[in-house]
C-alpha cells in the first residue's frame, strides 16, 4: 500500500472517529506525528528523484552496460579455457585408448606364442613318454630274459 493511500485511509478513519467521540490529545499528537513523517518521506523521495537526472541515469546505464560487457567477455574467455581443457582431456583419453588397444594386441600375441610353445613341449613330452613306454617294455623283456638266463645257468651248474 502506498504511503498516500495509507495516509488517506488514516484521515478518513480519524474523521469517522471524531464524529463518534473526541480523540484524546495523545492520539491526536500521534496522528499529527504520523502525518509529519509521511510528508517528510514524500519530500525525501522527491529529492532522490531529482537527484537522478536524465544524464545521471544515462551515465549509470552506460556503466552498467560496460560492466555487463566486461562480464560477458570474462565468461567468453572462461568458456574458451574450459573448452581447451576439455579438448586436452579428450585427447588424453583417446591416446590412452590407443595405448591400451596396442597393449592388448601385444599381450594377445605374447599369449599365443606361449600357448604354441606349450603345445609343442607337450607334444614333445608325449612323444618322449611314448618312447619311454617302448624303453620300459624292452627293459621288462630284458629283465625277463636275464632272469630266464640266470635260471638256465643255475640249473646247468647244478
UniProtKB/TrEMBL annotation:
UniProt region (Disordered), positions on chain: 1-25
Comp. bias (Basic and acidic residues): 1-10
Keywords: Coiled coil
Gene3D superfamilies assigned: Arfaptin homology (AH) domain/BAR domain (1.20.1270.60)
Domain FCH: 72-121
InterPro entries per UniProt: AH/BAR_dom_sf, FCH_dom, SLIT-ROBO_RhoGAP
Name of the protein in its database record: FCH domain-containing protein
High-level lineage: Eukaryota, Metazoa, Ecdysozoa, Nematoda, Chromadorea
Amino acid at each position: 500500500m502506498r504511503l498516500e493511500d495509507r495516509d488517506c485511509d488514516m484521515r478518513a478513519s480519524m474523521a469517522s472517529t471524531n464524529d463518534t467521540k473526541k480523540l484524546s490529545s495523545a492520539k491526536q499528537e500521534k496522528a499529527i506525528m504520523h502525518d509529519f513523517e509521511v510528508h517528510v518521506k514524500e519530500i525525501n523521495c522527491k529529492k532522490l528523484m531529482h537527484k537522478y537526472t536524465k544524464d545521471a541515469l544515462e551515465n549509470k546505464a552506460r556503466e552498467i552496460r560496460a560492466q555487463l560487457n566486461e562480464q560477458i567477455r570474462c565468461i567468453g574467455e572462461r568458456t574458451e579455457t574450459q573448452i581447451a581443457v576439455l579438448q586436452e582431456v579428450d585427447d588424453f583419453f583417446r591416446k590412452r585408448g590407443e595405448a591400451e588397444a596396442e597393449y592388448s594386441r601385444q599381450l594377445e600375441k605374447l599369449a599365443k606364442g606361449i600357448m604354441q610353445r606349450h603345445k609343442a613341449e607337450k607334444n614333445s613330452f608325449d612323444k618322449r613318454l611314448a618312447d619311454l613306454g617302448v624303453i620300459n617294455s624292452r627293459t621288462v623283456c630284458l629283465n625277463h630274459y636275464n632272469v630266464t638266463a640266470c635260471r638256465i645257468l643255475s640249473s646247468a651248474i647244478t
